[in-house]
Amino acid sequence: MLELQHIKKTFGDKVVLQDIDITIQSGEIVSLLGPSGCGKTTLLNIILGLVQQSEGRLLYEGQDISQQSMQLRGFNIVFQDFALFPHLNAYDNIVYGLKNKKQQMSKQQIQEYIDFLELQPHLTKKIHELSGGQKQRVAIARTLVMQPKVLLLDEPLSALDGVIKESIKERIQQIAQQFNLTTIIVTHDPEEALTLSDKVLIINDGSVAQFGTPREIIQQPKNAFVEQFILKQLYIKRHNIYQLFGEQHD
């Protein structure tokens, strides 16, 4: 369980995040959703340990990790641009981080992740030879072999289209379920958040606009911002979303 208790972040006189107070259960997929500049990426970096909060506490499994370094937290991130090494093949990218890890994984354990993500045919390929979806799966495999306590994903689907995007969504859900891995995702896309996540944290101007299940957000938006940001952006695709949650709107 990951608890964010009254998190505040300021840069100089500017308040970027204010009173973020939520609890994320083990194995949940939670999306941080909101317009550009709302503070969602800053919050992701605070959870990772890359940025220090100005006020508030972070607790993981009841332990205060607010002052712990990124390395000690044991959380890992998949970046939006994948951040793969172009001079290495797919396999070497996957195992790269294990060089400095004290507790080594066996080859069998590594192979299990490779098989789970269906990467075996692509292991000897250089990064430029991979499709967008294959690059994303390599980036996810590289993170999973580090055995993170929490998996963080920064706009994981933004560079993908159509069938590939749906495939990666399914993979993320399978990973969270099979490995009971708490997964936190930054996205600006309401449809992506609502169809991928167990819970969605909607941020507006650095504050919590609503935190709840997709069904709660669709059926009971807490304020005008949530209703406008979610429902208006989904207007064209509304039938797909409403069918998913058993609602009909005209």
TrEMBL record:
PANTHER family per the UniProt record, alphabetical: SPERMIDINE/PUTRESCINE IMPORT ATP-BINDING PROTEIN POTA, SPERMIDINE_PUTRESCINE IMPORT ATP-BINDING PROTEIN POTA
Keyword Transport: yes
SUPFAM superfamilies the record matches: P-loop containing nucleoside triphosphate hydrolases (SSF52540)
Keywords: ATP-binding, Nucleotide-binding, Transport
Species, as recorded: Lysinibacillus alkalisoli
Catalytic reactions on record: a quaternary ammonium(out) + ATP + H2O = a quaternary ammonium(in) + ADP + phosphate + H(+)
Name the UniProt record assigns to this protein: Carnitine transport ATP-binding protein OpuCA
Subunit structure: The complex is composed of two ATP-binding proteins (OpuCA), two transmembrane proteins (OpuCB and OpuCD) and a solute-binding protein (OpuCC).
Source taxonomy: Bacteria, Bacillati, Bacillota, Bacilli, Bacillales
GO molecular function, one term: ATP hydrolysis activity
Documented EC number(s): 7.6.2.9
Endoplasmic reticulum among keywords: no
Domain ABC transporter: 2-230
